[in-house]
């Protein structure tokens, strides 16, 4: 903060924009009123001295954990003090407090409390909910084990019912059954909802949830029979005490099994739950959050890389002229602008899933689950598709900042390590893609057997007509209009249809060769993932395109249309093989696509800075010296570096300990 | 005891691991020497990396200094010399986890750029560690584009000194290793001014810290640039110079000199500078890119043979994740790439040695080709290996994210290689410049360097493959790669010409073609990698056991490249749509074939458990036990964290509201 003037380059960029940045911000927020409210909450947090602290890059893991706990405690108090209860507003508040980083109470607030609400009986809620709400009980959700993650049926922890004492006996029978990874488990929580295989009357009844106290209230010491601790340092997630939990003949009362649906009666009789689809709801909700996070994290990285590229000058384009902004190089635009377009695309997809979930979850409570399978299948694939793309995109943004991107002052390393695990948690991405594929193949088989399918897969209905008209696919190739998003949606649709069909046919060939179902599936899984990927790509483009018509301001619509076209055409240029092989596009059209992509880069160049300004990240939230709004990069890098722990003393102790003695000896 | 799931993999091996290891090392004698050196280093507790994942930046730095100092002692003790055959194995064993790497660069730059007198003065001091050197080139505002550096060195004839200055903040030296805390001297690159005239960038030896008490010299502001994604053990530094005066003799003057009266003279050829850059780029390919990918493959493949998840057949035991096609499709192409690039490194070394001999005979003809190849391959290999390490990390599920897996550190380190020693995109464009020039020369019948003669030869324009088996013939896939490289280079050259003829200025035309140019450069390097792998396999004739599996890997590397870039091969119909289905089929078959030898193929890399430093990748496969044991060593489980008393307790007792 040595300079208060805005960097001249950024000033010029902002003046050149063809649209008003606030209008686009309103669209992203879902209305001007929501933008106003978001900024109000942002100001509440950012101007609050309680939430101000040293740059996280200079703190040790232990210090970061301590700081996060402090901020989380204050956050809970203040949310109640301010009366903030709307889920979106809580989300905003939390992400401003923690700068978008995870925190030790995440699992308590995000999983423990909601699970109590959805799976506990009224009696159980009476016992546990208020203490948990008041943070006397801090809980976590212990599902993943050392040996099993996404494949839940393989979990090994056991809960054996003992009718004599009316207790469950919990055990971690093997090393692999030790609960591993749950956030907040290592140091913070005194309770855990533990997922275990239920045994009663000598039979295994599958996975059920149990409320298990793990630490003594008051002393916070682990209870006898409980071994609990932190799993050690990770790639990021420094604030989070991801933990392990081992249970040895640990007894809990019968009433501690969450029994809103399934029940064990005092004599050990097991009562089945009415439907096992109920657990889908939470999964869909969390996946919708991840899609939104993919958009936001990528948007942060784009903001940093694009502003920095407007400030950084390097080399020469024209002999004898001053060094140009690196944003003027075609290769730099080619790295960054498709990612900018992707952030916008994913933003609209995240909003769509969330809205759809809200609509359907109304139905869930009324017992209408008919739309759930599709949303479940779609959200799995989109979670994988968007998180993979954002993950790679964040890294691309970091590398586009050259050496300085590698410094933690750029903020991108922390954005990356915070984001990247979501490719794995809440369902490993490849497994997620295969879940979507299962749904697609099912739809294909239905169509083949003469039924109609609905929803996002309805394009599969057309496949039957294409079989009658073999020329059909080739005939439509000439009709793809490269400047028309709707026409490009059709091209992506045709690609998805062809890849779903190819995968389904290959699967059938394997089955005809008398492979077992599982074996045939495995031998086709690379094809199946490709099919899912193409389906998700189509859905994303379709949703982006649909958004364009909703935008009333002509200038904003124009710039978003450019981005949408870039998203679509860049996607084709990166997957030309699929479009060529399916006969959707010709060689000549592919050449045009590649040419058009470069033209669009030049068009978007003018609005690039304004487009990232519209994401409206506050400097404190962005956490980047390279991405500062005012663009005063170099002087602030120097200020930042001076605070580095290695600079605390002018002569480091290792000079006296090691260097000097060596010089004396040699 | 070895986990039975790994033991069974080893029993299935179709070849002798020990033989493959010896062949990779260049003979059994080399293997023996390597193992002896690695053992001597790893057996020494000072070099232990046991608690590395738990250390702070300050602790890592101190350990690196301690190790560097100890290594000097160790080398004397063991009788290892600076130029001995052991050196590369020492590097392999310490794996960069040591201070004073820039001290070597400091010495090398004096040896290359300094006069005989300068060498005689500085090298002995540096060898004895009477001073510690660094190499200060990069500035806050400028990296790969050296002409843009802003530090100044103005000659003052009155005092026979140069006055060095950092005229603005962006001119601050930024990033040089060992400079933040350790170095006493550094080679500073600055714009030379004599009598008001600028002569461009020159190297100057500048003392920055006292040799007595290590405090900063007058006019010097220096320090550590702060935390990075990795390299916590290296004190990358900043340096600001304020009217720092150094004697005239401190400008490294083998090639140019400022005489006492200010006359500027040049002598000899500066082309040798390019040669230094070339040698550095080639040297990082193996140690900084290929080795880390080999390690990542070792960890991920062994873990995938131990990890069981979900069922492939109902009623059976859960399957090894290595048996899933999607897992094979992630890991096995990375394994093939590790081998492919291991061989490319050998190819480049050989080319380099030949070039070096020529240069010593004052023949600089091979330089442009060497420069182009070293730039292009530095970019291709670091990019590919970085992506490969990340794939390995992500293929290990949640446990991959634990630092104890070893993968995050491999990743955060290898990614830096995409930027340092030349940013990859810029390097690709340098290669492209050479390719366009060569293409123009070839098309007008002039002779071109050996690596680009293929640009001139005319071959059939359709792929002749008739069945999926045909795609296992190296001639078929090499030709496909060649075809694509020629097409991308020639079409870009034509476009460039067209633009210029239509009146677009040359530099503007170049910028408008850079996306395609970079793609063309990659295609060229990819083609050479595929071709070189096939040639290596061919030379293995007689080593039947090894040749077969190497052939599979060569095929896999080639077909994976086609499978993941179908568009460029389908475009213009070189490979037809039906043929592309054959490629896919052959490719997927190969995955299943190589699957059987996957563990032996990583065993052959012969990394010790200590060098992998991974709870997931150890030779015995006791993954879960080790993960649990290592986690318990974490300071978070040993030290009392003040957070409980300070924040948690009041929170749990609900007293925070009183704060």
Automatic annotation (TrEMBL), chain A:
<comment type="pathway">
    <text>Lipid metabolism; peroxisomal fatty acid beta-oxidation.</text>
</comment>
<keyword id="KW-0597">Phosphoprotein</keyword>
<dbReference type="InterPro" id="IPR037069">
    <property type="entry name" value="AcylCoA_DH/ox_N_sf"/>
</dbReference>
<feature type="binding site">
    <location>
        <position position="144"/>
    </location>
    <ligand>
        <name>FAD</name>
    </ligand>
</feature>
<comment type="similarity">
    <text>Belongs to the acyl-CoA oxidase family.</text>
</comment>
<dbReference type="GO" id="GO:0071949">
    <property type="term" value="F:FAD binding"/>
</dbReference>
<dbReference type="GO" id="GO:0055088">
    <property type="term" value="P:lipid homeostasis"/>
</dbReference>
<dbReference type="Pfam" id="PF02770">
    <property type="entry name" value="Acyl-CoA_dh_M"/>
</dbReference>
<dbReference type="GO" id="GO:0033540">
    <property type="term" value="P:fatty acid beta-oxidation using acyl-CoA oxidase"/>
</dbReference>
<feature type="domain" description="Acyl-CoA oxidase C-alpha1">
    <location>
        <begin position="280"/>
        <end position="441"/>
    </location>
</feature>
<dbReference type="InterPro" id="IPR034171">
    <property type="entry name" value="ACO"/>
</dbReference>
<dbReference type="InterPro" id="IPR036250">
    <property type="entry name" value="AcylCo_DH-like_C"/>
</dbReference>
<keyword id="KW-0276">Fatty acid metabolism</keyword>
<dbReference type="GO" id="GO:0005777">
    <property type="term" value="C:peroxisome"/>
</dbReference>
<dbReference type="InterPro" id="IPR002655">
    <property type="entry name" value="Acyl-CoA_oxidase_C"/>
</dbReference>
<keyword id="KW-0274">FAD</keyword>
<feature type="domain" description="Acyl-CoA oxidase C-terminal">
    <location>
        <begin position="485"/>
        <end position="662"/>
    </location>
</feature>
<dbReference type="InterPro" id="IPR046373">
    <property type="entry name" value="Acyl-CoA_Oxase/DH_mid-dom_sf"/>
</dbReference>
<dbReference type="InterPro" id="IPR055060">
    <property type="entry name" value="ACOX_C_alpha1"/>
</dbReference>
<keyword id="KW-0443">Lipid metabolism</keyword>
<feature type="domain" description="Acyl-coenzyme A oxidase N-terminal">
    <location>
        <begin position="21"/>
        <end position="138"/>
    </location>
</feature>
<feature type="domain" description="Acyl-CoA oxidase/dehydrogenase middle">
    <location>
        <begin position="141"/>
        <end position="249"/>
    </location>
</feature>
TrEMBL record, chain B:
<dbReference type="Pfam" id="PF22924">
    <property type="entry name" value="ACOX_C_alpha1"/>
</dbReference>
<dbReference type="InterPro" id="IPR046373">
    <property type="entry name" value="Acyl-CoA_Oxase/DH_mid-dom_sf"/>
</dbReference>
<dbReference type="Pfam" id="PF01756">
    <property type="entry name" value="ACOX"/>
</dbReference>
<dbReference type="GO" id="GO:0071949">
    <property type="term" value="F:FAD binding"/>
</dbReference>
<keyword id="KW-0443">Lipid metabolism</keyword>
<dbReference type="InterPro" id="IPR029320">
    <property type="entry name" value="Acyl-CoA_ox_N"/>
</dbReference>
<dbReference type="InterPro" id="IPR002655">
    <property type="entry name" value="Acyl-CoA_oxidase_C"/>
</dbReference>
<keyword id="KW-0274">FAD</keyword>
<dbReference type="InterPro" id="IPR012258">
    <property type="entry name" value="Acyl-CoA_oxidase"/>
</dbReference>
<dbReference type="GO" id="GO:0033540">
    <property type="term" value="P:fatty acid beta-oxidation using acyl-CoA oxidase"/>
</dbReference>
<protein>
    <submittedName>
        <fullName>ACOX2 oxidase</fullName>
    </submittedName>
</protein>
<dbReference type="GO" id="GO:0033791">
    <property type="term" value="F:3alpha,7alpha,12alpha-trihydroxy-5beta-cholestanoyl-CoA 24-hydroxylase activity"/>
</dbReference>
<dbReference type="InterPro" id="IPR055060">
    <property type="entry name" value="ACOX_C_alpha1"/>
</dbReference>
<keyword id="KW-0597">Phosphoprotein</keyword>
<dbReference type="InterPro" id="IPR036250">
    <property type="entry name" value="AcylCo_DH-like_C"/>
</dbReference>
<dbReference type="GO" id="GO:0005504">
    <property type="term" value="F:fatty acid binding"/>
</dbReference>
<keyword id="KW-0276">Fatty acid metabolism</keyword>
<feature type="domain" description="Acyl-CoA oxidase C-terminal">
    <location>
        <begin position="474"/>
        <end position="652"/>
    </location>
</feature>
<keyword id="KW-0560">Oxidoreductase</keyword>
<keyword id="KW-0576">Peroxisome</keyword>
<feature type="binding site">
    <location>
        <position position="138"/>
    </location>
    <ligand>
        <name>FAD</name>
    </ligand>
</feature>
<dbReference type="InterPro" id="IPR009100">
    <property type="entry name" value="AcylCoA_DH/oxidase_NM_dom_sf"/>
</dbReference>
């Amino acid at each position: 903060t040595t300079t208060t003037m805005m960097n001249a380059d950024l000033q010029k960029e902002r003046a050149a924009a063809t649209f008003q940045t606030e209008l686009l911000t309103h669209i992203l927020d879902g209305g001007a009123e929501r933008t106003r409210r978001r900024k109000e909450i942002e100001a509440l947090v950012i101007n609050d001295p309680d939430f101000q602290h040293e740059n996280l890059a200079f703190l040790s893991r232990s210090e970061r954990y301590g700081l996060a706990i402090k901020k989380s405690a204050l956050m809970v108090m203040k949310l109640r003090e301010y009366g903030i209860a709307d889920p979106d507003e809580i989300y905003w508040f939390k992400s401003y407090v923690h700068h978008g980083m995870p925190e030790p109470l995440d699992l308590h607030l995000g999983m423990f409390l909601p699970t109590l609400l959805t799976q506990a009986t009224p009696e159980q809620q009476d016992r546990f909910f208020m203490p948990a709400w008041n943070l006397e009980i801090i809980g976590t959700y212990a599902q993943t084990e050392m040996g099993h993650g996404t494949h839940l049926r393989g979990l090994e922890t056991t809960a054996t019912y003992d009718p004599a004492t009316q207790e469950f006996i919990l055990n971690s029978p093997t090393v692999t059954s030790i609960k591993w990874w749950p956030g907040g488990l290592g140091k913070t929580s005194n309770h855990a909802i533990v997922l275990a295989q239920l045994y009663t009357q000598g039979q295994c009844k599958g996975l059920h949830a149990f409320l298990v106290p793990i630490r003594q209230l008051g002393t916070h010491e682990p209870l006898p029979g409980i071994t609990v601790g932190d799993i050690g340092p990770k790639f990021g997630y420094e604030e989070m005490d991801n933990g392990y939990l081992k249970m040895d003949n640990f007894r809990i009362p019968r009433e501690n099994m969450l029994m809103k649906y399934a029940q064990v009666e005092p004599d050990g009789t097991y009562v089945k739950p009415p439907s096992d689809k109920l657990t889908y709801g939470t999964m869909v909700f969390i996946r919708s959050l991840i899609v939104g996070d993919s958009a936001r994290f990528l948007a942060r990285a784009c903001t940093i890389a694009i502003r920095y590229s407007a400030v950084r000058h390097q080399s020469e384009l024209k002999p004898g002229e001053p060094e140009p902004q690196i944003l003027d190089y075609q290769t730099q635009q080619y790295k960054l602008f498709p990612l900018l377009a992707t952030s916008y695309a994913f933003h609209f997809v995240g909003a769509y899933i969330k809205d759809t979930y809200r609509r359907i979850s109304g139905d869930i409570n009324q017992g209408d689950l008919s739309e759930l399978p599709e949303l479940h299948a779609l959200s799995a694939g989109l979670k994988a598709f968007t998180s993979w793309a954002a993950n790679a995109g964040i890294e691309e943004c970091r590398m586009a900042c050259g050496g300085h991107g590698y410094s933690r002052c750029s903020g991108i390393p922390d954005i990356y390590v915070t984001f990247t695990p979501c490719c794995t948690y809440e369902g490993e991405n490849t497994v997620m893609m295969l879940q979507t594929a299962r749904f697609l193949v099912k739809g294909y088989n239905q169509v083949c057997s003469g039924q109609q399918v609905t929803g996002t897969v309805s394009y599969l209905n057309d496949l039957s007509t294409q079989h009658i008209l073999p020329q059909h696919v080739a005939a439509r190739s000439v009709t793809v209009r490269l400047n028309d998003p709707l026409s490009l949606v059709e091209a992506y649709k045709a690609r998805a249809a062809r890849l779903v069909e190819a995968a389904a046919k290959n699967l059938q060939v394997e089955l005809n060769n008398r492979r077992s179902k599982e074996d045939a599936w495995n031998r086709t899984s690379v094809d199946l993932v490709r099919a899912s990927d193409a389906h998700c790509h189509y859905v994303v483009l379709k949703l982006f395109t649909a958004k364009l018509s909703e935008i009333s301001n002509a200038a904003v619509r124009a710039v978003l249309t450019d981005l949408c076209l870039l998203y679509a055409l860049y996607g084709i240029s990166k997957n030309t093989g699929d479009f060529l092989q399916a006969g959707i596009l010709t060689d000549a059209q592919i050449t045009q696509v590649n040419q058009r992509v470069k033209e669009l880069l030049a068009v978007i160049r003018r609005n690039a800075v304004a487009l990232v300004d519209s994401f409206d990240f506050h400097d404190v939230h962005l956490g980047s010296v390279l991405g500062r709004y005012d663009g005063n990069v170099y002087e602030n890098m120097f200020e930042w570096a001076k605070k580095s722990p290695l600079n605390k003393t002018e002569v480091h102790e290792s000079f006296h300990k090691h260097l000097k003695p060596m010089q004396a000896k040699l | 005891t070895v986990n039975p799931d790994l033991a069974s993999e080893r029993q299935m091996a179709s070849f002798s691991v020990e033989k493959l290891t010896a062949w990779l090392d260049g003979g059994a004698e080399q293997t023996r020497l390597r193992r002896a050196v690695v053992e001597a280093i790893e057996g020494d507790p000072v070099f232990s990396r046991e608690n590395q994942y738990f250390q702070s930046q300050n602790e890592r730095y101190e350990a690196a200094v301690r190790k560097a100092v100890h290594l000097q002692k160790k080398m004397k003790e063991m009788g290892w010399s600076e130029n001995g055959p052991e050196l590369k194995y020492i590097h392999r064993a310490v794996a960069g986890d040591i201070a004073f790497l820039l001290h070597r660069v400091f010495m090398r730059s004096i040896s290359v750029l300094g006069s005989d007198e300068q060498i005689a003065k500085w090298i002995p001091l540096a060898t004895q560690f009477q001073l510690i050197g660094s190499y200060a080139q990069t500035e806050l505002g400028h990296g790969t584009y050296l002409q843009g550096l802003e530090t100044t060195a103005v000659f003052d004839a009155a005092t026979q000194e140069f006055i060095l200055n950092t005229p603005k903040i962006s001119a601050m030296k930024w990033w040089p290793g060992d400079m933040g805390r350790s170095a006493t001297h550094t080679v500073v690159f600055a714009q030379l001014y004599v009598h008001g005239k600028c002569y461009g960038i020159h190297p100057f030896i500048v003392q920055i810290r006292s040799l007595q008490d290590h405090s900063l010299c007058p006019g010097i502001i220096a320090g550590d640039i702060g935390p990075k994604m990795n390299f916590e053990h290296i004190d990358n530094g900043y340096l600001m110079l304020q009217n720092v005066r150094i004697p005239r003799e401190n400008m490294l003057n083998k090639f140019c000199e400022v005489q006492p009266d200010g006359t500027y003279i040049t002598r000899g050829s500066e082309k040798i500078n390019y040669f230094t850059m070339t040698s550095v780029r080639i040297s990082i390919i193996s140690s900084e890119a290929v080795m880390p990918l080999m390690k990542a493959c070792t960890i991920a493949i062994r873990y995938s043979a131990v990890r069981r998840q979900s069922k492939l057949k109902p009623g059976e035991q859960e399957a090894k994740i290595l048996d899933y096609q999607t897992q094979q499709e992630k890991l096995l192409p990375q394994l093939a790439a590790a081998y492919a690039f291991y061989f490319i490194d050998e190819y480049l070394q050989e080319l380099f040695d030949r070039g070096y001999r020529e240069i010593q005979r004052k023949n600089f003809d091979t330089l442009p080709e060497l420069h182009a190849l070293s730039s292009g391959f530095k970019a291709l290999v670091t990019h590919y290996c970085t992506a490969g390490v990340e794939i390995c990390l992500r293929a290990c599920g949640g446990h991959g994210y634990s630092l104890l897996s070893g993968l995050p550190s491999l990743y955060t380190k290898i990614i830096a290689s995409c930027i340092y020693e030349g940013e990859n995109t810029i390097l690709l464009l340098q290669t492209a410049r050479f390719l366009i020039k060569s293409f123009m020369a070839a098309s007008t019948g002039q002779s071109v360097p050996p690596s680009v003669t293929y640009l001139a030869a005319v071959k059939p324009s359709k792929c002749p493959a008739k069945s999926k088996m045909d795609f296992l013939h190296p001639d078929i896939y090499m030709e496909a790669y060649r075809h694509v490289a020629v097409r991308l280079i020639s079409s870009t050259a034509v476009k460039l010409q067209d633009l210029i003829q239509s009146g677009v200025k040359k530099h503007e035309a170049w910028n408008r073609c850079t996306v395609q140019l970079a793609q063309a450069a990659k295609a060229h390097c990819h083609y050479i990698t595929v071709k070189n792998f096939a040639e290596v396999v061919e030379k293995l004739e007689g080593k039947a056991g090894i040749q077969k599996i190497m052939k599979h890997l060569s095929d896999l590397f080639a077909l994976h490249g086609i499978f993941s870039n179908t568009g460029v091969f389908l475009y213009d119909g070189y490979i037809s749509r039906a043929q592309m289905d054959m490629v896919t089929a052959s490719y997927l078959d190969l995955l299943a074939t190589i699957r059987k030898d996957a563990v032996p193929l990583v065993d052959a890399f012969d990394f010790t458990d200590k060098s992998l430093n991974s709870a997931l990748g150890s030779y015995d496969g006791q993954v879960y036990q080790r993960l649990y044991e290592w986690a318990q060593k974490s300071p978070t489980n040993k030290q009392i964290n003040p957070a409980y008393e300070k924040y948690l307790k009041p929170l749990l007792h609900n007293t925070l509201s009183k704060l």
